[in-house]
Amino acid sequence: MVVSKLKPLTAYEEAIEGLVTHGWISGIEDYGCFICFYNNVKGLVHRTELGLDPGVKPESVFQTGQVVKCRILRADPSARRISLSFILSPSRVLELHGDGGKTVSVGDEVSGVVTHVSNSLITLDIPLQFGVARAFMKVELLSDFNGHSEQLRSLLIPGHKFDHLRVLERDDQKLIVTSKFSFLSCDFIPSDISQLNSHKVVPGYIASITEKGCFVRFLGGLTGLASVPQLVDGFVQDPFQHFTVGQSVRAQVLEVNLDFGRFNVSLKQSVCYSTDTNLIKGYFLEEEKIAELQASKADLAKMNSIDSIVVGGVIKGVVQDIKEYGIIVDIQNFKDFVGFVTHFQIDSELKVGDVVTARVLDVVKSDGIIDLTLRRNLVKLGHKSNCEGEKAGRKRRRKVLEIHQKALGVVELIKDEYLVCSLPDYGNAIAFASAHDYNIRVDPHEKYTLGQSIEVVIGALPEDSGVGRLLVLVASFSDPTGGLSVKRRKMLRKLNSEGIIHGQVVSVGPLEMKIKVGKNSVGKVHVTQVVDEFQDENPLARYSVGEMITAKILKKSKHFDDGVSSLCYELTLKPSLLGNEDQEESRNCSDTTLSTLSVGQIVIGYVKDVHDDWALLLISPTVIGRLFVLDSSTDPIQLARFQSRYQIGQPVRCRISKIDYGNGKVDLSLRNLDNSSKDEEASEININDIIGGRVSKILPGVGGLSVQIGAHVFGRVHVTDLHDVWKDNPTRDFKVGQFVRCRVLDVSRNEDGIINQVDLSLRQSLIESQLDAAAPSSSNKRPDSMIVEKLEDLHVDMEVEGFVKNIVSKGCFVTLSRKIDARIKISNLSGTYVADPEIMFPVGKVVRGRVISFDCATGFVELSLRRPLHNQQRDETGLITLKELHVGNLVTGVISHIASYGLFISIDNSKIVGLCHISEVSDNHIGNLESHYKIGERVRAKVLKVEEDRERISLGMKNKYIKDLRMEVESNEEEGLVSEQSLGTNISAETNDADEDRDLGDDSNLHPLSTPVFSVFSSPVEPLDVVLDTEENKLTDDTSIEGVNFATTNEVYESSNKRAKKRSKDLREAAIREAERKLVEGDNVPESIEDFEKLVHVSPNSSFIWIKYMAFLLSLGDADKARAVAERALQTINFREEGEKLNVWVALLNLENVYGDPPKEATMAVFHRALQYCDNKKLYLALLGIYERSDQHDMADELLKTMLRKFKMSCKMWLKRIHHFLRRGLLEAAHKTLDRALLSLPQRKHIKVISQAAIAEFKIGSAEHARNLFESILRNYPKRVDLWSVYLDQEIVLGDATVTRALFERVISLDLPPKKMKFLFKKYLDYEKAHGDEERMDYVKGKAMQYVESRLG
């Protein structure tokens, strides 16, 4: 890498397609190799680009750390992704198997047949002489117009043939093609950098956009950079506002560097303007193609009939309807098309039914619309040819149309992509001009007005254009400074003293109305300046074009159009302002700004735009509010129709919920419109409110739903609050994105009043009871049972229902409500044997049981699903119950289950299952019961023990119990024996009595406390993520367990003490033996509390196991037990194991930071306790890391202040605070902290803190300030070569070659010993090898020789 002569890759922005450079392999996978470059720039070489034969594994050929040469295929700097290839010289020609040597080259024009259409890609087959080639075309490459690209994609079907396609790129397997007319109509497009000439303008398209500019691509993947200053003629703040990916452009080549394979281009309109009418020609050709595709799905005769209508011709029709926006004309013999006349094209009054003679201005086949004009001066010339030499109305001959001739045009129609103009000097011939150019995309409705005069250049005559239209080019595109020579404008008539003017309405839109004032001045009335009070309809709808109105001036401004200056007035029609004679006061009254608004104020907004989740409302001409979808209604049906409910210009009465003065944002809401209180945002959600929501996440198991109830506010719906009538797996009735109506049950806020968590309910009974005050209180109850919200409402033997929450080997947990969980032992799950609890009681199943015991203090509740056998009597079927059982009875039954510790026997004529322990099966020892007995085998046994309180029965099968009684085989005899004596009990457990008591009874390890209230927001830091920010205690291994990272604690710390080394060795060997034992026994992953208890008993000093134990309890939702385990760990771990104890303390801090109540106080309480036992410095650093990873900047600031007071002589603490400010972008605060550090730290630490701060400034701060810091050190220590080296390294990384070389020149001019100068000259030479050329390398060598000669002389 050091001696490589190839250009190094140091940033993602430098990744140019086709660049060949060196890198090293940082990782090898089955799907490819990861390559690393300088500054941690990384890329991927896919398996297909490794150059390996099929079946060869990459790891058998390559190895990690190997230096390789690779070629850049594709790069996306914004996503930080680079695709690479080990194939350095791809062929320029695609050769197909069996094609007889015929080739397809980049730039060739081919035809293709569509085989597949997706949302973003078109797949085609390119037919050749003896085969086909697979080709791909992105949707944005279909057309020069974005609108056409989407239309074509929606109409294309497999089988459609493209007659003309241009090959953009190719490799050995596929082609990249385009159907852009700008590429098809151009004779020369470069495909290699050697074909480029400076100042040449060539067509291309935008491949990608970054903050540094736009990458323009031509043929063969040839890509140039248009930097930000070269994008437009004016100032560019954001390139994304001017260009889009895939946009067709014209680019001028500026400079070409053949050595590095780079070139720069310019997209400025002043040098890249169009010189022909190919843009508008391509538009109409694509319009014809879209119409043909539509006709292929509909009626072809419709398309053939419209061909008889000629643009500029005259047709007759009947006025069918008169609308506010124009007149609808019924054209005879063209029933599938409708004529349309704008008000601007009418010069006489008309009524429905009138027969009119109109001239055709435009024909839009795809929409079935024929644009007409009824103006006499245009219609009377429609019968005559546009090119005839007859006399016009003013007794002068009309000029003859010639190519490249300039003419004066009058705008008759304004379309989204083009203008329809009349040419008065040429008999009012109808011409078409593009409304914009390749490199400038403007709204023509804003730039042009009907009747406006513009200068055009004749581009193509109708017979030569290929589209049957006269095509012209707007002259201003080639002259951005303005092309028309206009007469000096006449002075406007004086306005009266009140600022009242009179004008004529020329256009009415949903948000603005334009008024003609005088001859050349325009007035604008914003929709918010029409009425004072709220109205149900758009206030501008009452006005029509041509109407005379009176308005008041609010503001004057100059308007430039094609270089011509005119006056523009901002007007108001509000009655309250029209009557106010004080013009200044009127302006102040109408000027609504952020400072004049307040939270809670009711305002009128007018819909400007509607996105997926937001509606933008105009409150005033300068203030725009945002209405979130969930703030618009509580009805799910209305929320789903959000976009269709609001139309552009629709008035909405809303309430201001939040004002962000810093960002200039106003949030609106339709809630509490009748509430006049002006509370802050938090008051928008209160207990018992009915609000709308949207399901954002379906939580696993019985976690319920996460519901979005605001733009940035989420709530949780517990599984018991989903429905009134409970059913299994209730979340399956919901899907992500579904709108719901909720009732707020509880709201928790922090000290600042910010919402932490919101508990919601979707139960219809609760919602209706809140909406209807007269609803009975019983609506809060479920129809079949009451939801138990408090432990005080429970009593023993009370029947309750719940959802199965979790299954473990010893039982299951059931959630009864939001705050109460219960435990069910496996022996209490059923009256019969349960072979697999997970199958019989899956998570989410509704179960009904009775309360056995509960404890209000601890929140412990235990249930049983078994019916009490001791209370049962023999029913009508004659089944024996437990009450009839006596010790000594002989019973018969069938073996239902065989365990390692005994046999489970289902006693005949009952529902009782008894256990015969292995010690009671036979007089002789039996090692394996399965080899002697089978399930279903009939046996006889004696009742040994009956436990009515525990509903259990113990049996014995030894011969001494049976004595002389012999086993009868016939079933009728067996039934006779047991008809009166068959007794038993239900033992459905997996362990014997002693095991059961030990596992489930004594230590109560399965007792759940009441479920803690979890926030619906996910924490960015895992609860038990133990990260110590110290080099001394850095852990050697990380283990991921259920999404929580734990630091291993088996690391052996080096110590000179032999005893400490021996102890560390013993601990390590013990850990290895433990791991080997787990592998042998197959219990690597503990699954229950008992498993963890065994582990901590074996390794009591291992913080890894204790922390893992805590994480397991958190996965069960029991944060309190996790805290208890942490306390046990701190008491159990030996006091000499300081590192292990510190890990537990840090885990406990992480736990409290997420689950503490409240987190801030709980975390600090644990922290102050830990300070008494741990290294204070390490503990402070650990807590700082927790706060920074969870983005708690305020807490981190307070902690850093404390750390600096406590450890003010520690250089590391000051650097921590400096890094903290730099990461947050607070450069000034970081600089002040450095000044404070220099005052506090001793002189010997100044160099370290200044140099480290400078390095941090280079990376995440200000490079200029970093240079100042290095210069301040080197002024005092000019011979510190180590400082010069670090300084140089940072400048090299920054990439400014001029600054770097200037710094090298300063360094080599120092008077230092030869050994140090040798190091500096070598560093300089290495830099030039990587970034310079042979001339620069010779220059450095010459400087070195001069130094040697000066020393020798």
TrEMBL record:
Keyword Nucleus tagged: yes
S1 motif domain mapped to chain residues: 18-87, 199-268, 312-375, 498-574, 600-671, 688-763, 797-866, 888-958
Any one GO BP annotation for this protein: rRNA processing
Entry keyword set: Nucleus, Phosphoprotein, Repeat, rRNA processing
Bias-annotated ranges (Acidic residues): 992-1002
InterPro entries: HAT (IPR003107), HAT_Syf1_CNRKL1_C (IPR055430), NA-bd_OB-fold (IPR012340), OB_Rrp5 (IPR057300), Rrp5 (IPR045209), Rrp5_S1 (IPR057302), S1_domain (IPR003029), TPR-like_helical_dom_sf (IPR011990)
Signal peptide boundaries: none
Region described as Disordered: spans on this chain: 973-1004
KW Secreted (keyword) present: no
A GO-annotated cellular component: small-subunit processome
Name used for this protein in its record: S1 motif domain-containing protein
The organism of origin for this protein: Ceratopteris richardii
